Amino acid sequence: MIFTYNKEHVGDVLMVIVADDQAAKLAAERKGNVARVYRLDNGETVAWNIFQISNLVNITERGQVFLTDEEISILNQELSQAGFEPELVNDLDPKFVVGEIMEMVAHPDSDHLNICQVKVAADKVVQIVAGAPNAKVGLKTIVALPGAMMPKGNVIFPGELRGEKSFGMMCSPRELQLPNAPQKRGIIELASSEVVGTAFDPTKHWQE
């Protein structure tokens, strides 16, 4: 669940992204200051727009914003008062973390993609399909997990690449818009001493 706010370009509206629309046709229903955006094919909620948000919570940041549990409770009350089922859940777990490639096999339907098993926490391994030329078993890199918002504004969701499930993305310096990022293809290569699951810190993990 991602919260974004840009008063200058969008207005006093908090946008809440809750699911991948998968390019489906969308519709919206608005009640008061709350609009639910949903898929026409199955009715799944993919986003909420909460208008006049400054009357409810004080947001000073721009782009992706992070709210407190108390602020989430206020938003759920607003949804309920508008006649919707409250369903916003705060997720403060880091979405950009140190990961390690544990296994890697060639994609059966591609000449450049690999299917990687990537450890992203002490007790969690996820499958990621990647085409980075420098990917290899044992490499530690930065992983964008589902729910991450990239610097350009695109959101990472679980998906498939040529029929193989993928639950995140291993990131290049350019994709993270790091200073002096090389323009060549390739994911970030971290020191072997980095701890899997650690939240991404540009000042620590990028020394170029």
Automatic annotation (TrEMBL):
Q: Where is the TRNA-binding domain?
A: 90-201
The family database entries (PROSITE patterns) matched by this protein are listed as: TRBD
Keyword line: Ligase, RNA-binding, tRNA-binding
Can you name one GO molecular function term for this protein?
phenylalanine-tRNA ligase activity
Q: Which domain of life is it from?
A: Bacteria
**Which InterPro entries does this one have?**
DUF4479, NA-bd_OB-fold, tRNA-bd_dom, tRNA_bind_bactPheRS, YtpR-like_sf
Q: Does the keyword RNA-binding apply?
A: yes
EC numbers listed for it are: 6.1.1.20
Q: Name one Pfam family in it.
A: DUF4479
Q: Which Gene3D superfamilies match?
A: Nucleic acid-binding proteins, YtpR-like
Q: What is this protein called?
A: tRNA-binding domain-containing protein
